[in-house]
Each structure stands twice: as C-alpha cells, then as structure tokens.
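Let us practice reading a record.
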Amino acid sequence: MATPQLDLIGLLRTIDPQALLAERHLWLIRLLDWVRGDTGNPDVAVARVRMLIDAAEVRPDFLKLWHLWWEEFLTSVDATPLLADLGFSSQGSLASELARRLRRRLLPVSPETTDLSELFELLFPTDFDARWLRALDARTLRRLRVILFHAETATPSRVPDYVLRTLMDALAYATSQISAAGQSADVRLRMSDEAKAARPFAELPIVFETLRRAVLQDGRLSAPAQIAAVQLREQLDACRAAASSVYSHLEEHGISVNIEFQLRQLRQRILRVKALLLCLETDAPAQATAQLLSHLVKVSQDSASMRALWSSSTELLAAKVTERNAETGQHYITRNAAEYGAMLARAAGGGALLAGTTWAKLAIGALGLSSFWGGWWAGVNYALSFVLIMLLHWTVATKQPAMTAPAMAARLKDMATPGAVERFVDEVVYLLRSQFAAILGNVGLVMPVVVLLSMGLHRLGWAQRIMDPFHAQYILAQHNVLGPTALFAAATGVLLFASSLIAGWVENWFVFNRLDSALAHHPRATAALGRERAARWAAYWRQNISSWTANISLGLMLGLVPPVLRFFGIPFDVRHVTLVAGQIAAAVHELGAGALHQPALAWAAGGIVITGLMNLAFSFTLAFRLALTAQNVPALDRRRLYAALGQRALRRPLSFLLPLRLHGAGSPDPAP
C-alpha cells in the first residue's frame, strides 16, 4: 500500500508546464485531492501541505518546473471573476439565479477553462477545503509564499505584479457592480430622499479611482493609499445605509422578491469589497489570502444551494405575509366567554350554510362529470360558499388557524420582556379554544340542517337521484377512522395553510403594484365609477383582497387538487371536518334508523374527530412555523415555548377547550 509520501513523489514527477490547459488543471486538481486525503481532519491536510513544501525544497528540478507551471497558470487564467463575482448573479433576479444553480447542479464543469471562478469549484469542491485553508498557520503560509509562489526572493517574478493588478481589477469590477445596482430604477426609486440627495452610489467609482491612483503611484501601503482606503470604506458604508432605506418603502408599500434579492446581493458585494481591501492593506498577505480563499470556498458551496437562496430571498416576504395575515387573524381569536359565544353563533351560521354546500357537492358528484370538470364545479361550489360565509360574517371551522397562528406569533417579537412566554401560552389557549368553538358550531349545526334538507329533498323526489343506500354505505366506509382519513385530513390542512399563503402573497402584490391607488385615481376608473365610489372601492379592496383570495383559493384547491393528483396516480380526497360531518349526516338519513346500530357509523364518527384534529394541527403547525421563521425566534426560545405549553396542558387542559379564566402572567380573560 502506497504511503502519502510515495503518492506525492509520483504526483510531482508528472508535472508538465507545457501540457495542454485541461491537463495542467487536472494535475492541480489531483494535487489538491492528495492534500485533502480521506481523513476529514484539517490538521492532517495542513501536515500534507508541509510535506509538499519539504519535498519541493529538496528537489530543485521539481521546484524549477513548478515555477514554470505556476507562471503559465497565472498567464492562462483570469482570477478577477473569482475575487469579485463568485457567488453573485449576473442577471440580478431570483429566477435567473435559481436556474443557474440548477444548471450547476445538473451539468458538469469542464476543467478546460480560463475562468478561475469556474475552475475553483473543481479545485475546492467541499466545505472541508474551507476548514483546512483556515487552519494553515503563519509559518506554513510564509514557506508556501517564499518557496512555492516565488515571492520575497531575488528571483524576478511576475507574481507580485499579477496579484496587485488582479486585486485592483477585482475591486474595480465589484465597485462598478455596486454602483450600477444602487442606481437601478427598482432600488433608486425606493430610497429615502436623504439617500438620493447624498448620491453615494454615483460617487463610489470616483472614490475608488482615487484609491487606484494612490496605489499605483505611491504603493499599496503608502499614506495616500491608506487614506483613500478609509474614504472608500466610508463610501461603502454610505451605500449600505442608502440601500437599507429601501426596506422602509418595501414594508409600507409591499415586498418584491426580486428587489429583496438585489438588495441582498448588493450588501454581499459591499462585504466582498471590504474583504478585498483587507488583502490590499495587510502586512501579512499570505494569511489574508488563505482567509479569503477559505471564505470563497464557503461562498462557492453556499452558491450551489437552491434551498438556501430561496429561503434567504423570501424571508422578508414571509415576514410581510405573516404580518398581513396577523392583522386578519386577530378577528378569529376569542379571549372571553362573550367572544366565545359569539364564535359559536358565527360558526353555527357557517355550518348551516355548508349544509347546502354538502348537498350541492353530492349533486355535482351525481352528474357523472369527468374528473377535472367534477373537481372544477366542486371547487366553484366551495368557493362561493366560503365567500358567502365571509360576507355574512360567519365562520368556517379550521380555516382560521392559517390566519390566526401568525397573529399569535406576532407576540414573539420581543421574547426578553417579562411574562412574554406566559402571554404567548395564553394566546395559544385563546386560539385553540376558538377553533374548538368553531368546529363545535359548524359540526353542531351542519348535521341537523343536512338532515332537514334531506327530508325536504325526499319530499320533492330529488334526493333519490343524488343519494341511494349503496352510496350512503360507501360514504360511511370512505370516512372510516382506520382508513386513509387521517392522511387525507392532514393534506387538507396543508391546503388550508396554502390558502393563507396565497392570500398574503396576493395582498402584497396588490399593495406593491399600488392597485388601490390606481383604482382610486386612474382616469378610466374615476370616469366609470365616479371619484367617491372609486375611492371607496379602492379602500375596500385594499382591506379585503386577502379575505377574498383566501376563500376563493381554498375553495378551488379543495375541488381541483384531488383530480389533479389522481391524474398523476396519487390518491387524494378532501377531508374537511364540516363537509365530512355533513356527508355522514346525509348518509345516515338515507340509511334510516338502522344506521345507528351499524359499527360503520361509529367508525365514521371517529373519522369526524380525527379529521378535525388533523385539519387544525397541520394548518396551525405550518403557519406557526412560518411565523416563527419570519420573527427569527431562536431554537432556545422555541424550546421554552414548547415546555410552557406542555406545562399549561398538564395543569389546565380544559382551558384549551372552554372559556375558563387564565391565571398566567398574561392578561386574564375579562368577565363576560
């Protein structure tokens, strides 16, 4: 078995400065593979670097070939894109960057390239490279610089000039990109007036040019160069402050994912320029270079993750969607007995109306339409019902958690304040018992109203065309608690959560595009509606676009998602607790009193319970996790919250269901 030293000697013998471009690069890749080894220990990799230096020092023939190889390498590759542009998108949009990362993941990179940023991911393909580069000590770095990279010796070399020229080119490239991004219409129009007046982005290239002249004329460590570097840093800070002022506009007038992506890229470019300035000014260039390479390896790895890009770029949008849903969600939380009773009444109204929705759904199924059109008309039926319930100020059970969870998590903005955890637990209690009241009111009225409608339809002779004993028995079996009911109910909870996301996104889009202002002031709108009516419509849609979107999107998804999934061979049926209870009530009426003695009815009743639990649990959990992410609640605080919730559930379990007074640190329930 070959030792690392023998492997190294064999590798050194194959160096060829006159080889083709791809072969030279492949040799360097093999050398770095040898440095990494297979231990995953940075200290072992550093020891191998020392072994390489020792081997080169005692082999003048190799050292001469290496210097020729290194000169050829510097001549043939361009390092400017690596230093200035690695990890940044050339298109400036989230979609194009996602596409680039997907191509990078699917398509191999050729070593036959003169772009060092492309070659870099082949040279340093893992996070381990960042670790061993960071672990290189000062003595090893100095030996590398003197022996291998031909610096600080009497031998003439182009290396110092090449490094300085490349560094200045990278700074010029990066500062020009920052200046262009800061003066783009999307960013400039949303800056504060003070930032626009200061013109930091327009002045940035001028400040850099002062630095460039000082470095070339007086040297990088000269007093003029040091003063110019300080001025450039101050200008970069002014650019960063100007870019930050854009967020105030976005939070007030709606979030754009692309603008957030551009701002994030702009901030990261500013940090890159500051890192390059450190390399320019340092008295220890070897250490600075190693640290910069380590940072670039990490950037290269991060720039391959599509999930990280999407998460970071949509964080602000998630916060805004959560904030808007929080405003809506406050209406669904009951905090005292009077509000609890009002929720029961509103839920009862919603249950009565959904009884008609249930029979309409059964009628659509009886028409024998194709899968898609059956799903479409079922979705229209649901959407119209949900909108009508909204307009009547009634309630649909389990639809609220996706809205109310962000309202609850909005209380987590400052976990350091006294009693914050107890107030949060109180909010959870208020929310969950509100949902229990909503489910109780919906289910408690949908079943008797469905029975009454069934009796009326039977008298008219219409029910027999829609429901027969076979179909009724099938409904009971379909909702058996031991079947896929729990899984389907959980998936329905995901749709409930998705409707709140769609609602928040549409409202943000409405506000961002200033459609309320256009509706209030556009000449065509005012001519058609009149100024006063146009203003009222604008205010109405600004306030209610989220509710309309949530109800319509939820209804259409409940109708269309099942046939779409079944088209791809994925079995799925909607399981919403109120609709399930209504269908079971219709089936029981059709089967008559004998159904009360069937085991199938007991199992189906269990299906109602598990459906309500899964609807509530999944829609609430997903929305709550989104809210925690948007509020950046750390893991330690999350564990404190979960522990406090567990303690409350053990001490006062009934408070999660009934309007009992709370005696925690939060506000107690007001007397009814």
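A brief commentary: The radius of gyration is 33 Å.
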